[in-house]
């Protein structure tokens, strides 16, 4: 009777820490808001049809920034512990008795 071994979870497969994950989300949001600020300022000085493109970006970016920043932990990739995963050496099966000839 052969039984399946239980699945083993290692700490290296754990998600990143909450503070690390939140700082990444904050950084993505701030980058999006920086791009929006550039769009607003450029829309003031740029004439012609590019102005409408910049205004559309300034209007759409806040919504997209919030959606991207609120992409929660369910999409988070596993974190790293700073320790590379090494291959384990194989263990030879040792029989107490030599095979019979």
Overview of this protein structure:
- The protein is mainly α and 101 residues long.
- It has a domain at 15-41.
- It is 49% helix and 0% strand.
- The protein contains 2 helices and no strands.
- The protein has helices at 18-45, 49-69.
- The mean pLDDT is 75.
Q: Provide the structure class.
A: mainly alpha
Q: Give the N-terminus to C-terminus distance in angstroms.
A: 28 Å
- In total, the number of strands is 0
| Gross morphology | rod-shaped
How would a crystallographer describe the biggest sheet? Answer: none
Q: How much helix is in the residues?
A: 40-55%
Which regions are unreliable across 5 or more consecutive residues at pLDDT < 50?
none
Round the Cα radius of gyration to an integer and report it.
27 Å
Q: Tell me the series of helices and strands, N- to C-terminal.
A: HH
Bin the strand percentage: under 5%
What is the helix tally? 2
Average of per-residue pLDDT values: 75
What brief labels describe this structure?
single chain; 101 residues; mainly alpha; 2 helices; 49% helix; rod-shaped
Please give the structural blueprint.
Blueprint: H1 18-45, H2 49-69
Helix pairs in contact: 1-2
């Amino acid at each position: 009777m052969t039984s399946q071994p239980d699945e083993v979870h290692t700490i290296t497969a754990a998600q990143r820490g909450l503070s690390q994950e939140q700082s990444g989300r904050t950084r993505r949001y701030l980058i999006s808001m920086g791009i929006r600020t550039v769009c607003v300022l450029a829309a003031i000085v740029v004439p012609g049809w590019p102005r409408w493109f910049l205004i559309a970006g300034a209007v759409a970016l806040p919504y997209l920034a919030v959606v991207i920043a609120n992409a929660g932990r369910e999409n988070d990739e596993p974190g790293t512990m700073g320790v590379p995963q090494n291959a384990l050496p194989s263990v030879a099966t040792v029989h107490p008795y030599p095979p019979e000839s």
